[in-house]
Amino acid sequence: MSETKEPRTYTMSFEDGKTVEKTAEELTPEQVFACEKTGALNNEIGRLNATLADNIVLRDHYQAIAKVGFEEAEEEGE
């Protein structure tokens, strides 16, 4: 019994809002590679954005703790 696989599809969204979907067979090997690479880079950018957001929260937290020490020194100097 053989299974029929759906052909791999790729979707491109344009700035005008138009979206085009094509199968791997409709694209050249270079274009398929570019689609795969774009997808991988988008995933990496998403991961980095999440890490950046986490780091901003941590920075704000630690900055608030450190700020207290500087405010105390400022009050003592008055």
| Oligomerization state | single chain
Radius of gyration: 25 Å
Largest sheet descriptor: 2 strands, antiparallel
Ranges where pLDDT stays below 50 over 5 or more residues in a row are none
Count the strands? 2
The order of strands across the largest sheet is 1-2
Gap between N and C termini, in Å?
Answer: 86 Å
Q: Give the fraction of residues assigned to helices.
A: 55-70%
Strand percentage lies at: 5-15%
Name the average pLDDT.
Answer: 92
The structural class is: alpha+beta
The SSE order reads EEH
Number of helices: 1
What characteristic shape results from the CA principal axes?
A: rod-shaped
Task: Please explain how this structure is put together.
The chain is of the alpha+beta class and 78 residues long. The protein has one helix and two strands, in the order E-E-H. A two-stranded antiparallel ribbon has the order 1-2. Strand 1 and strand 2 form a beta hairpin. The longest helix is centred in the last third of the chain and has 48 residues. The chain is rod-shaped, with a radius of gyration of 25 Å. The N and C termini lie far apart (86 Å). The mean pLDDT is 92.
State the main characteristics.
78 residues, alpha+beta, two-stranded antiparallel ribbon, 62% helix, rod-shaped
How would you sum up this structure in a few lines?
The protein has 78 residues and is an alpha+beta fold.
Q: Mind sketching the topology for me?
A:
Blueprint: E1 9-13, E2 19-23, H1 29-76
Antiparallel strand pairs: 1-2
